[in-house]
Backbone:
């Protein structure tokens, strides 16, 4: 038997050479905006080795080719899942939803009652618990929201999580994080241990695949953007570009919420002024 240069003769499976790691890191940077330092190499190596063993791929170049091959979308999505986490939960970082409830939504609901349009974006929404949380706070404040022009858009770069977000079905225990005041009746899921977000909240949310490092395809502007625990994967220049892109699609007075370990920086900070913990208001001159 010939041993491929990528097969570890000690039997641990696949090992990533420095060159292989560089190839993956530059692919991830170019296509997803992910910045991966060499400290990530052991993690990437162990995660990829499991996958490549399963698929009987022994030469790393063959794997790289598959990222541009006929099954590229699925392969890229799987790579992205290996390199990032989709962890999310209902009412994660709850202070943001207090600001949404107390400061952001009341004037927007008044605007919608007068016939105005309200748009909220959950960018990097993973499997959808963030946009459904926004919908649930909206419904608490305005049970009639269904009849108004208020929409919540959830997007993620990964088509697999976007599909899960659309399905709106989660393990029953995931709903334990919903505070009493916002508890909604669940619809039955496809299995007894799963449950579905109810129709009136689903109806307020639409979903799509969108890569934040590419130009945004929107015509209109947003009144609030949640982009939490996503920019953490980007380097500083990419973060600054993304903050600027958000600022451009936010209405004056619109809010941007970012993750607990993320910071506003660069030219956008001239306009996005702090309004609470990791919360910014767009104040263009
Ligand atoms: C940890 S989850 C955050 C989910 C949610 N925002 C929250 O805070 O609970 C990070 C998400 O960012 C997405 N992501 C990573 N890079 C992205 C990019 N370039 N464009 C859009 N989404 C991206 C991942 O697919 C993942 O679903």
Residues:
């Amino acid at each position: 038997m010939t041993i491929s240069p990528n097969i570890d003769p000690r039997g641990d499976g696949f090992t990533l050479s420095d060159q292989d790691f560089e190839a993956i890191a530059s692919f991830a940077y170019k296509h997803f905006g992910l910045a991966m330092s060499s400290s990530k190499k052991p993690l990437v190596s162990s995660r990829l080795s499991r996958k490549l063993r399963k698929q009987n791929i022994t030469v790393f170049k063959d794997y790289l080719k598959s990222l541009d091959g006929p099954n590229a979308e699925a392969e890229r999505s799987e790579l992205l899942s290996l390199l990032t986490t989709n962890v999310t939960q209902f009412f994660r970082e709850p202070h943001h939803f207090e600001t949404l409830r107390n400061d952001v939504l009341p004037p927007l609901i008044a605007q919608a009652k007068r016939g105005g349009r309200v748009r909220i974006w959950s960018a990097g929404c993973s499997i959808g618990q963030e946009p459904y949380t926004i919908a649930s706070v909206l419904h608490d404040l305005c049970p009639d929201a269904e009849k108004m022009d208020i929409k919540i858009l959830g997007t993620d770069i990964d088509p697999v999580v976007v599909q899960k977000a659309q399905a709106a079905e989660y393990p029953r225990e995931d709903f334990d994080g919903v505070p009493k005041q916002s508890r909604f009746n669940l619809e039955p899921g496809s299995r007894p241990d799963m449950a579905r977000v109810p129709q009136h909240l689903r109806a307020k949310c639409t979903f799509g695949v969108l890569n934040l490092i590419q130009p945004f395809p929107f015509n209109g502007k947003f009144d609030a953007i949640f982009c939490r625990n996503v920019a953490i994967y980007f380097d500083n220049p990419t973060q600054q570009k993304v903050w600027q892109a958000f600022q451009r699609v936010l209405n004056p007075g619109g809010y941007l919420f970012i993750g607990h370990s993320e910071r506003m920086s660069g030219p956008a900070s001239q306009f996005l002024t702090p309004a609470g913990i990791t919360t910014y208001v767009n104040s263009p001159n």
